[in-house]
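SEQUENCE-TO-STRUCTURE ENTRY
===========================

Backbone structure tokens: a row of integers, each naming the local backbone shape at its residue.

Task: work out the structure tokens from the sequence, keeping to the layout shown below.
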Amino acid sequence: MAIVIKSPQEIEKMRRSGKAVREILEYVRGFVKPGATTLDLEAAAAAKMKEMGAIPAFKGYRGYPCVLCTSVNQEVVHGIPSAGRSLREGDIVSIDTGVVIEGFYGDSAITVPVGDKLSTSAKRLLDVTEASLESGIRAVKAGATLGDVGAAVQEVVEAEGFSVVREFVGHGIGTRLHEDPQVPNYGRRGQGLKLRTGMVLCIEPMVNAGGAGVQVLKDGWTAVTEDGSLSAHFEHTIAVTDDGALVLTQ
């Protein structure tokens, strides 16, 4: 496993790409409404990236066709934007994207409600998933382990009766979209790789309202919950510093 330690100067560059990703996500959020298609969100993101001079990180990655992943309701991750997929009142949509600026990547995801009539259970799923990400971030510091981070996420999720997806995990990031190490959203405290100052990680809980099982559809990308339950996804890019976690995608 080759862990790439970043210098403070490199982390500063990654802060720029992280900030751009967050700006794009907030811009795209404004297009989420009943009747919009997931391709409308894609078009908005692509235009914003072009305007910012940011290179899309996802488009072309292992043949992926778009700049966004848009995963609706029971879709967990890697949903492909489509003109045929219209958003409806009460849906939830996970929007995941990344960019490259000056050779460094940023990667982040949010899950947002469509319209104002979100069910209580869907709202709880979003709140718990976001809280589990925040719990994972709080566990990040030099000398902590990946097991500490995974356990911090898992404990929040399972205390609410939800399930952590295990097939997909977070990852290191830098001059490549996916670097070592893998960052599971489950684990045991004190176990696994020790975190060091200069490591940059993407923590990204994917949380199902039902069971943890997922399957990938025939398109080879879209992962859905096996039991048809709702799924939510939040992600931040985080640098390990001497002072703890620095969120680069705030």
The mean pLDDT is 98.
